[in-house]
Amino acid sequence: MVKARFRAGFFYEPYYPRAALLHPRNRHQGRYDFGVLTANSPQLSAFVIATAIGEPSIDFADPAAVLALNRALLKAHYGVGHWDIPKGYLCPPIPGRADYIHYLADLLADSNAGCIPRGPRVRVLDIGVGANAIYPLIGHAEYGWRFVGSDIDPVALASAKSIIASNHQLDDAIELRRQKTADHILAGVVNAGERFDLTMCNPPFHASAYDAQNSSERKWRGLGKTRPGNKPQSSNFGGLGTELWCEGGEALFIRRLIQESREVHDQVYWFSTLVSKESNLPAVLRDLKKVGAPFVRTVEMAQGQKKSRYVAWSFLHASAQRAWHEQGG
């Protein structure tokens, strides 16, 4: 468990890394090394093409190519020998997912005298683990953390279970729990008396299936990738149902998460969530102020042209921090 106390007396502390750069510890700096990747995963070779300037790459508009690339990245960099997802489910861009993990490690270090806590004593709850289980895979490989992954979708959980079962080093590293009630996020997942050093979440982005479909169509029109009748091809990164949308979209999901976090305020050191839409950030900070979270941080992240951020909050004052340390050993 996290041991040291963190600084008090701030409500909003933004941190901005160097623009458009991955976290310094991110393994995916610069161009992909297709020599290393194909050596580890020969199946990727079938999808490697030459760019206009003769450099190796893949067609990122091809879902099969993106899936093969992810398998190669997970095997070469994170020791995941088998990884698969059901057709149509989200195939995540790994460099960006790794960034969230590394910046959360920095957050834990700030609460631990500047030292990143490693090993299975650090427990993390991944809210919406998905079919791909990407955050626990990266977090365990990089820092040895133990994860609980929750999801409302039984098909997604079955897929994540299959990934864990196929990689025996994960047997004791990742536990899966089903959220049985659509109206809850933490309730029914966080058990009485258990504690987490950290929670993380990549909320559904869209407010409806219609919005998600329109967004996909706009992206594909921008790439010129449409079929006759103007129906878009399937997305390269995919995504189904609860992965992409929920009632009220990202804003309402995060509001519910904040409200529920108050109910388990003494069982989690740091709560966190990605906030993809910058326009949602002011409301998120207002909601955190309403529930009385005394410690809040906003960390900006960037991967190339894409910008995102996460917000973290804690309810633990100095005495609660000391108690956490004493109970955690």
Structure description:
With 329 residues, the chain is an alpha/beta fold. Strand 9 (295-303) and strand 10 (306-314) form a beta hairpin. The longest helix is centred in the first third of the chain and has 17 residues, at 94-110. The protein has a single domain, classed as Vaccinia Virus protein VP39 (Rossmann fold, 3-Layer(aba) Sandwich), CATH 3.40.50. The protein starts with 12 loop residues before the first strand and ends with a helix. The strands form 2 sheets. It has an 8-stranded mixed beta sheet with strand order 1-9-10-8-7-4-5-6, with helices on both faces. The protein has a two-stranded antiparallel sheet with strand order 2-3. 34% of the residues lie in helices and 16% in strands.
Average pLDDT level: 85
Radius of gyration: 20 Å
Q: How much helix, percentage-wise, in residues?
A: 25-40%
End-to-end gap:
7 Å
CATH topology: Rossmann fold
- Number-wise, the strands total 10
Work out the oligomeric state of the chains in this entry.
Answer: single chain
Strand order of the largest sheet: 1-9-10-8-7-4-5-6
What portion of residues belong to β-strands?
Answer: 15-25%
Family: Belongs to the methyltransferase superfamily. METTL16/RlmF family.
GO biological process, one term: rRNA base methylation
Keywords: Cytoplasm, Methyltransferase, rRNA processing, S-adenosyl-L-methionine, Transferase
GO molecular function, one term: 23S rRNA (adenine(1618)-N(6))-methyltransferase activity
